[in-house]
Amino acid sequence: MNTLAIIFIIFLSATPLSASNANIEVDYCIANRSLPKGHQGYPCKDPAKVTTDDFVFTGFRGEKIITNIFRNNVTRANHDTFPALNGLGLSMSRLDLGVGGIVPVHSHRTSEIIVLINGTIIAGIIDTNNTAYFKRLEPGDVMIFPQFLLHFQVNVGKTRALAFVGLNGANPGIQITSTALFAGNLPAKIASQITLISPGEVRRLRMIFDRIGTGQ
Question: What is the DSSP annotation of 92-132?
């Protein structure tokens, strides 16, 4: 199965089902990013000014540079970067993981589906019963992460890993547990109290994030 076929499957799998789909009145709503964005996305571009390029995203091309503390690079395609996604309730990402790289424990407002293209990773979900479901994925494998649940990916291979993810939301958001606790404005004393991590260790983690940054 080639990469293009895999990406197409991601989109089909991520498409949200909505009663509004039965009342579609336009073929598309290409984002007019010169106007302010609202809760449902951008206003529509004048159809007379729509071009083929509006339906094409080239941001996933080429080698991606990995510089952050997690040894990953996440390239996002959403209605801010890919005008044709406007109003469709979809977004995508390209995920590059260096050797030993991770996507730390995090959650989204939406469900996510991942297809591994190259490399070997361990991907996992932790449900609300604190049960972890994790699996070693090889190229061509697909895994689903239900909305709001904590999940993660770890490159356990000897080469870089490449995956594509689809999300059934235009703005899925991401909340990374470690950065939420140790890279934001939460006081160190409170972070220590709610995690049972010593104040000294909390300060060490905060210094790491302050010095290096997360790149997320």
Answer: EEEEEE-TT-EEEEEE-SS-EEEEEEES-EEEEEE-TT--E
Instruction: Please state, as a whole number, how many other Cβ atoms lie within 10 Å of the Cβ of residue 113.
Output: 19
106 in a known ligand binding site: yes
Interval 3-40: pLDDT, tens: 655 665 555 555 554 444 545 578 999 999 999 988 87
DSSP string, 146-167: -TT-EEEEEE-SSS-EEEEEEE
Structural contact between residues 74 and 91, judged by C-beta atoms closer than 8 angstroms: no
- Spell out the domain ranges in the chain: 3-172, 174-216
Distance of CA 49 to the CA centre of its chain: 31
Task: Tell me the whole-structure pTM to 2 decimals.
Answer: 0.84
Whether 82 and 89 have beta carbons less than 8 Å apart is answered as no
Q: Is 39 annotated as a binding residue?
A: no
Q: Residue 151, annotated ligand binder?
A: yes
How far apart are alpha carbons 64 and 14 in whole angstroms?
A: 24
Cα–Cα separations (whole angstroms), residue 209 to 70, 153, 203, 213: 11, 20, 10, 5
Specify the CATH architecture of the domain 3-172: Sandwich (2.60)
- Reduce the DSSP state of residue 96 to 3 states and report it: strand
- Residue 79 assigned as binding residue: no
